[in-house]
């Protein structure tokens, strides 16, 4: 099948062709006709499968069709696309601009971490499509700059990540402001129980699309485990980069502090790198990503949330410097490579403390990941296991923040714990 067989108009097809695309991906073949029909949609697809175009193209088409023959004194906001992170919001908006450049539709993107005035000015000019993160959207709604009364299409992109980040209360607030009659599109990497629960409250008789098996990793990705002691991970990573002449590698750490520390160590080894995580300003994150894409730096060290939305078509290498505490995050991480028809390599540096995490990942993905010991970095059998202190999830932190009762209970438990420690001394 070709794009010109998908009932898309000439202006949209022209933009698609200029990007060099003629054949839609499996998710696009299924999602574009489904969205054009006007019904609700629940779709699961691996990262890098083209899902962004899978909903932006038919949304542009539907808005063009509904606008034909209408005469309005002021442009009304008719499509809202919610994303979990700033980077993903910017990426989705770029797709809207790219594919909609030969239409008369207007769009903007809003997210936190940057000044709101330029975003407010764009909104005041009138929009058809708004791409937003939940926090900044609620903020500008509260200030009276945005009305959702005319929304015809709602998209929740990477809905699983939005739930992980604790955005469910914000999503419910936004849903309450939308017209009851509208088209709802939910995209998620997995169909977890929580996603299904959200879908049951949001979607009406949705079309169901699942391009790849949930929680599976992409066939174009070669995965490998390098067993190594924790104190030798940094040296092994530097060795792999230099010995294999890697020019572009995305490295995942478990914490923001770990990312900063690793950058300092790699720079001492002569490897150009930058960190990207939640404590970095939006300007710093944008620059780091731009320098990484352009080849100015070899390694981009990231935490899971900051890396969400990084879209590099031919990223050759991903390294799990630390295995994630949540197995599903492994799928998201390695999915950064092997995209757009290219092959990729995903390496995990696994110490003895992480063997339980590795077992969970292999159980989730239903595979045994090959292991290779690198000469000079053999594991010391005398080193024992030191349990990994699982940091509280972002979702848990958000729930504590938004739940006064939970905060009181946590404080009470902490006081009881201290009292018990005092009585035992």
Can you offer a commentary on this structure?
With 425 residues, the chain is an alpha/beta fold. The chain has two domains: 3-210, Rossmann fold; 221-365, Rossmann fold. It has helices at 10-18, 26-36, 51-67, 86-99, 117-124, 134-142, 159-164, 168-175, 193-202, 233-243, 256-268, 282-294, 304-307, 327-334, 355-365, 394-402, 404-423; strands at residues 41-44, 79-82, 107-110, 129-132, 153-156, 183-188, 207-210, 221-227, 249-252, 273-276, 299-302, 317-320, 344-350. The radius of gyration is 23 Å and the shape is globular. The N and C termini lie far apart (74 Å).
CATH fold-level topology of the largest domain: Rossmann fold
% residues in beta strands: 5-15%
Global mean pLDDT: 85
Query: Total number of β-strand segments?
Result: 13
Sheet with the most strands, sense and barrel status: 7 strands, parallel
Please tally the helical runs, counting DSSP H or I stretches of 4 or more residues: 17
What's the CATH C level of the largest domain?
Alpha Beta
N-end to C-end Cα span: 74 Å
Radius of gyration: 23 Å
Number of structural domains? 2
Oligomer: single chain
């Amino acid at each position: 099948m070709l794009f010109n067989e998908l009932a898309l108009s000439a202006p949209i097809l022209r933009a698609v062709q200029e990007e060099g695309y003629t054949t839609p991906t499996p998710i696009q073949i299924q999602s574009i006709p489904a969205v054009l029909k006007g019904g609700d949609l629940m779709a699961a697809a691996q990262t890098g499968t083209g899902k962004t175009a899978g909903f932006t193209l038919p949304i542009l088409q539907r808005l063009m069709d509904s606008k034909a023959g209408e005469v309005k004194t002021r442009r009304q906001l008719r499509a809202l696309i919610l994303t979990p992170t700033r980077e993903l919001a910017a990426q989705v908006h770029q797709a809207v601009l790219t594919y909609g450049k030969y239409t008369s539709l207007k769009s903007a993107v809003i997210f936190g971490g940057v000044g709101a005035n330029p975003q407010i000015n764009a909104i005041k000019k009138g929009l058809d499509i708004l791409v937003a993160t939940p926090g900044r959207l609620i903020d500008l709604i509260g200030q009276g700059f945005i009305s959702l009364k005319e929304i015809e299409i709602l998209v929740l992109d990477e809905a699983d990540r939005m739930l992980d980040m604790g955005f469910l209360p914000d999503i419910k607030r936004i849903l309450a402001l939308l017209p009851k009659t509208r088209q709802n599109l939910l995209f998620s990497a997995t169909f977890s129980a929580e996603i299904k629960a959200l879908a049951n409250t949001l979607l009406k008789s949705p079309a169901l699309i699942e391009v790849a098996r949930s929680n599976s990793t992409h066939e174009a990705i070669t995965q490998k485990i390098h067993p190594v002691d924790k104190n030798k991970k940094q040296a092994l990573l530097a060795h792999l980069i230099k010995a294999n002449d890697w020019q572009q590698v995305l490295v995942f750490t478990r914490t923001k502090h770990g990312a900063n520390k690793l950058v300092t160590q790699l720079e001492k080894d002569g490897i150009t790198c930058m960190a990207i995580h939640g404590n970095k300003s939006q300007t710093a994150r944008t620059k780091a990503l731009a320098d990484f894409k352009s080849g100015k730096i070899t390694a981009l060290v990231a935490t899971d949330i900051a890396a969400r939305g990084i879209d590099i078509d031919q990223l050759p290498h991903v390294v799990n410097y630390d295995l994630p505490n949540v197995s599903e995050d492994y799928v998201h991480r390695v999915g950064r490579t092997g995209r757009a028809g290219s092959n990729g390599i995903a390496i995990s540096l696994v110490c003895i403390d992480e063997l339980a995490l590795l077992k969970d990942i292999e159980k989730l993905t239903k595979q045994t990941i090959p292991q290779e010991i690198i000469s000079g970095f053999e594991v010391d059998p005398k080193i024992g296991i030191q349990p990994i202190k699982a940091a509280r999830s972002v979702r848990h932190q958000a729930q504590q923040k938004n739940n006064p009762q939970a905060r009181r209970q946590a404080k009470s438990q902490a006081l009881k714990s201290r009292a018990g420690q005092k009585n035992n001394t």
